[in-house]
TrEMBL record, chains A, B:
It comes from Eragrostis curvula. Keywords: Copper, Disulfide bond, Metal-binding, Oxidoreductase, Repeat, Secreted, Signal. One of its GO terms (cellular component) is extracellular region. It is an enzyme of class 1 (oxidoreductase). Its EC number is 1.10.3.3. Dimer. Its cofactor is Cu cation. This is L-ascorbate oxidase. CDD domains: CuRO_1_AAO, CuRO_3_AAO. It is found in: Secreted. InterPro entries: Cu-oxidase-like_N, Cu-oxidase_2nd, Cu-oxidase_C, Cu-oxidase_fam, Cu_oxidase_Cu_BS, Cupredoxin, CuRO_1_AAO, CuRO_3_AAO. It catalyses: 4 L-ascorbate + O2 = 4 monodehydro-L-ascorbate radical + 2 H2O. Residues 40-154, 171-358, 473-588 form the Plastocyanin-like domain.
């Protein structure tokens, strides 16, 4: 046994392949409550064969997969055993309709669960789809606090492609740094020459497994391992970047039972599988390629899309997809190769194995397939633009109540490097907004007097760095915890406008994720968004729904949502260090209806909310004297 | 310039030597308020020439030295900029008379200051002495959260040796691990084969500076550094342990301005200096030797002791001393050598330099002096037993109201390794005890129904491991947050009784520290304490006062205190991983008088105290509609 075979070796990865061919989507059971009990603690783990301290759940990394049916109530009792660190867990893609305090965003929807405390998240799995959960406090996601959340369709909420597949595979993608998140944060918080960028991750992980340096794994137990020669996959003397990456990343057989053995998906020939893919990377945009197999995209972020076939998919942090994969090739083992997009990769590809049950060999014979060139943005756009709504997708309202333009810039603020939206960089308050509104302490808890700006100076030249702007378009970047206040029922259009970063000639991709909602992706464009010119080109009749959307370099992305879910929601770049540097906004939505909700006191009473509460009278009765 | 010279290079270390010859102890000023504003954050620092993430204060490690006069009010506004980690700061040696909420013990006296929050500690520097401050939440002390706290004598509170010295030097000792505290905690929390002991520290630090591997410092800047041959200090071919340690620890000149350059204390010849020495080590017991100079001990933990002269001093974590040092030797540079006691040292000695201002050379010519053999316990006892009260020291009450015997054992609990006192291992609640009492929520906040046991089965054989005990003396180890309730005014005698650890033949030293008090050290003994036999040998008439006392292997230590300071106080082994493993007890003292105190709500309202509070009515007025 050379690797982690799903359903046999590792209970933890059981969900990664469902060998029993479930005829999916036909769950007829009545909604039920799915209860989970989690202990979150530091664990020593070797996700890429190198031992590190990570945040684990119930002693393992990644966290357990949650599986539920649409309509089920999910109840997760979380105990924080991390001593000094608080925590929250965000259920990414769950809209938290009527339960905004369960969204798991520290300083926004909830107080941190402090060390020793227990908090129970209860929320409805409101629709079928491929989701995940992760820490949403500081950079705890990057420390390993995440796992899969899969919501199956039901008779009542049937996925339109439910009858088209025989079995499921699940792949949660992430990236991993050897430098701990405290040091990463220290670097990002540094002033002037002490500022230090986190750099590229050391390893990409598939279901929490990667291989940083194979020799490490092998040296741990030479008796049961031998290293396959890399020459089998890359000709000797070939010193191309690709081969160098392969030599670093692909190591042949691994010691049985190590935490970093590659994932093997066992599949039966002649079937169709639904491969679920979600990305919770800290930084990396990824591409997923399954050697020798076409992929038909059917789901994006829990929403059905008009099916389209591709050789590989791009996936940004915060996104999820389902693709249908037919096991119609020669019965052997194939590589699943995951590579970096958009940033010059210093991180080798992650590899998993798709193995036909009738395969004679354990390992693929070929060289792992290359993923597309990292800097081919055109190819990324082609993939993204193919995503259209499937027939039957709800359509957006046609009347727009509010339009918000959001300029994404990178700025210096007091010698710190920050990201800003309309010249405001997000600084979270120590009182969760939801608690501040619930207890009526907005004015002391955050800057409630000033609202976040709906636009920016149209003279801003997005092709130039901030300091090269004309004087009229120069604006001081404010560090602020202010919000967008949006009344219940408002239809909001947002245009994300990208711009040049601090360095001339550099503009980055940013995957923006909205909490509490799906939104319609109305369209994308190059350069500066000009409403009169561009609005009419948007697809406002049948655009796809998503919860995360990419903003391409030097371009814009338009989206629409209906403010029908009272709560305080984050809308932010899903790149962990970008959010850390302030790249997000807060939407306080339908606060006038907050009192209709049953906000649990323990979720939101901390910071200024606590100060505003009236304590019980101190105990005045004497204690019994000591014996 | 080869090293950090006090008063010139480094403002941070300015206090480490007071070249201006202050005629000490004659401060006549009226009590004043000393205000400090601290930002606690992760910093990248190289305390031993290796870069690590540490907890810094105002961007530096160690934290700034606080200096005050006896009677002054010290006010420290602490802002937590660590994102996800809470923090508290304990003012070690300050009795917090009337301000128990300012003692800075998480889950005991105070809620953690969460990320983004600010809390102001205000307390009176109640008496002159050599103190320090440090984190008291999880293992944050070991992460670098500490600094010196020096309280000068005044006309009203004059130290009896105030006229005997011309200047002051200050030395805060600590130890440093390359593995971060989260990983250390993960190891200590591990179950069964996942349990991992922290091991020995990599480096000892003097005022936050040590040298792990000199070559690292030198390689950073070869231009300004050259490595002095170790042969000058240890003959070639001498492979003794001592010489090996010297080869590792002693490196000759260091690069100017590095964070790990050794401390140089400049002294004038023909003077007497008060050398303050405090130890905030995580693990190590230490010995301090000043080459060629005798030391006269005059202060222990802020209490005057009858002066005695020694060649070197032992110091356990949590202790502090002042020694008088005469600069009566040849005017040259001398080594100050700090080595490990009590555990087989894998950590090289720390070195600093005492340099006469008239010295011709920058560096000592001799081999750094060896500190005593680590396993010479007899020598340690000899030093400790020499500590007697100075004339004028307050005497203990002669009537004892309560006697508590505390058996220190190491035990397995559910495959975890723990330390226990009378078969109870301390597990802190998520609601600070002080808040639980103040708001009358003891019963829900911790086990208030069961009191900590005042004794243990006298059939327990302290020479055998727990599992080798006779059936009658076997006791299950309870994990509990229960307390000792002590009524105001009670005179309490405690006998700490050491025993064999889990491994046969092993018994360790434990420095026990009491919060909120000084106590009288009545005596020490070998083997099992037998009251009828041993009590009469105790010094109950003029014993020395301390706040920390060592419990020697296989022996006992007796102490007395008066419960005259209402508050909830920790009494615990000051070894960080030992406390982490439960080696402490909680004393809830004078709780019947708690209502007389002005406990600030923000100090204690978290956990169950928050749940018990009555919140303001939720806001019901609608927010203004969005524009």
């Amino acid at each position: 046994m050379m690797a982690t075979r799903c359903g046999s070796l590792t209970v933890q990865l059981l969900r990664c392949c469902t060998l029993m061919l479930v005829f999916a989507g036909l769950v007829a059971a009545a909604p039920t409550t799915r209860r989970f009990k989690w202990d979150v603690e530091y664990i020593m783990w070797a996700p890429d064969c190198q031992q590190s301290v990570m945040i684990g759940i119930n002693g393992k990394f990644p966290g357990p997969t949650i599986e539920a049916n649409a309509g089920d109530l999910i109840s997760v009792e979380v105990t924080n055993s991390m001593h000094t660190e608080g925590l929250v867990i965000h259920w990414h893609g769950i809209r938290q309709i009527g339960t905004p305090w369960a969204d798991g965003t520290a300083a926004i929807s909830q107080c941190p669960i402090n060390g020793g405390e227990t908090f129970t998240y209860e929320f409805v799995a409101d629709k079928p789809g491929t989701f995940f959960y992760h820490g949403h406090y500081g950079m705890q996601r990057a420390a390993g606090l995440y796992g899969s959340l899969i919501v199956n369709g039901t008779d009542q909420q049937k996925e339109p492609y439910a009858d088209e597949y025989d079995g499921e595979l699940n792949m949660l993608l992430s990236d991993w740094y050897h430098e701990n998140v405290y040091a990463q944060a220290a670097g990002l918080d540094g002033k002037g020459k002490h500022w230090e960028w986190v750099g590229e991750p050391q390893t990409l992980l598939i279901n929490g497994r990667g291989q940083f340096d194979c020799s490490l794994a092998i040296e741990r137990d030479r008796k049961t391992c031998d290293r396959r020669k890399t020459d089998a996959y890359c000709k000797e003397g070939d010193k191309s970047e690709r081969c160098e990456l392969i030599r670093r990343s692909e190591c042949g057989p691994f010691c049985e039972g190590t935490q970093c053995a590659p994932v093997v998906f066992d599949v039966e020939p002649g079937k169709t599988y639904r491969l679920r893919i979600a990305s919770t990377t800290s930084l990396s945009a990824l591409n997923v390629h399954v050697e020798g197999h076409k992929l038909t995209v059917v789901e994006a972020d829990g929403n059905s899309v008009a099916p389209f076939e591709v050789d590989d998919i791009d996936i940004y942090s915060g996104e999820s997809y389902s693709v249908l994969l037919k096991t119609d090739q020669r019965p052997q083992a194939y590589w699943i190769s995951v590579g970096v997009r958009g940033r010059k990769p210093k991180t080798p590809n992650a590899l998993a194995i798709l193995k036909y049950t009738t395969s004679k060999s354990e390992w693929p014979a070929a060289v792992p397939p290359a993923t597309p060139a990292w800097d081919n943005v055109t190819r990324s756009k082609e993939f993204t633009y193919k995503i259209k709504a499937r027939e039957g997708t709800p359509r957006p309202p046609t009347t727009v109540d509010r339009r918000i333009l959001m300029l994404n810039t990178q700025n210096y603020v007091d010698e710190h490097i920050k990201w800003a939206i309309n010249h405001v960089t997000l600084s979270l308050p120590n009182t969760p907004y939801l608690g501040a509104y619930f207890y009526g302490v907005e004015s002391v808890a955050f800057d409630a007097a000033t609202e976040s700006p709906d636009t920016f100076d149209r003279g801003y030249d997005i092709k130039k760095p901030p300091e090269a702007q004309a004087p009229a378009a120069q604006a001081e970047t404010a560090v602020s915890n202010r919000v967008y206040k949006v009344a219940n029922g408002t239809v909001v259009d947002v245009v994300l406008q990208n711009a040049n970063a601090l360095e001339a000639g550099v503009s980055e991709s940013h995957p923006w994720h909205l909490h509490g909602h799906d939104f319609w992706v109305l369209g994308y464009g190059e350069g500066m968004y000009e409403h009169d010119r561009d609005f009419k080109k948007l697809d406002v009749t049948s655009p796809p729904l998503r919860n995360t959307v990419v903003l391409f370099p030097n371009g814009w992305t338009a989206l629409r949502f209906v403010a029908d879910n009272p709560g305080v929601w984050a809308f932010h770049c899903h790149i962990e260090p970008h959010l850390h540097l302030g790249m997000g906004v807060i939407i306080a939505e339908g606060m006038e209806r907050l009192h209709e909700l049953n906000v649990p006191k323990e979720a939101v009473m901390c910071g200024q909310a606590t100060r505003a509460a009236v304590p019980l009278a101190p105990a005045t009765s004497p204690s019994p004297p000591s014996p």
